[in-house]
Structures are given as structure tokens and as C-alpha cells.
Amino acid sequence: MKRILFVCVENSNRSQMAEAFARIHGQGKVEAHSAGSRPSGRVNPKAIASMAELGYDLSTHQAIGLDQFNGTEIDVAVTMGCGDACPLVRASRREEWNIPDPREMAPDEFRKVRDLIESKVRDLLSTL
Q1: CATH of the domain at 61
Q2: Active-site choice (35, 77, 82, 99)
Q3: Catalytic residue, candidates 22, 78, 86, 99
């Protein structure tokens, strides 16, 4: 089973949704995680609502720090375009996705970012 880690600053929007999509679409093939360099301590209610529209309960997720993965072997580490580096994470492969932060976006724009993340996760899973 491949281990994937999605990283952004707060671990409250993009990385959380990416983790959820990897769990949905990679069920049985991947172990998905997400973390933040400066975690907010909560998942954004907009992200929770956006994923609930697709039938996924993001309210059970926690915003956690990247330090919990210090030295952990990861197959793929994905940063979300926020300039974060994960030097303490030992990853066989690293990807940088340039995804805009949807935190302050209106619901329709937020959904577009959510859908972009889903597309990129599907593409990633197809390469594993």
C-alpha cells in the first residue's frame, strides 16, 4: 500500500480535501494523510460543507502538524502550491501542485478548487 502525504500551511482546506479524495478514490490502494507547516487546529467549515455535498464527512478530520511525520517514510509527498517544503519527510517522490487557497472564496469558486483537487488526486493515483 502506497503512503501519500498532502501538505499545505494550515491543513484546513486543500490538503484536507486531497486526503479525502485519495481515501475515496484510492480505497484499498493508498494510505492517505495530510498535514500543515502551521496547522490552524481546525478544518475550515467551507471545506467541510464542500465535501459534504459529495457525501464525504470531513468534520471527522483534524488539522495536524507536519512535525508528526518527521522521518516517516512516504511514497509521495504533495505540496499544494503554498511554498511549503517538507524537509523532514522522507519521500520517494515529491510533487508541487499550484492550487489557489480557497479559504476566502465564494462557494462556487471554492467548489472549482475542490474539483481541481479531485482531478489532480485521480491523476496522481493513476500513476501509482
Answers
A1: 3.40.50.2300
A2: 82
A3: 86
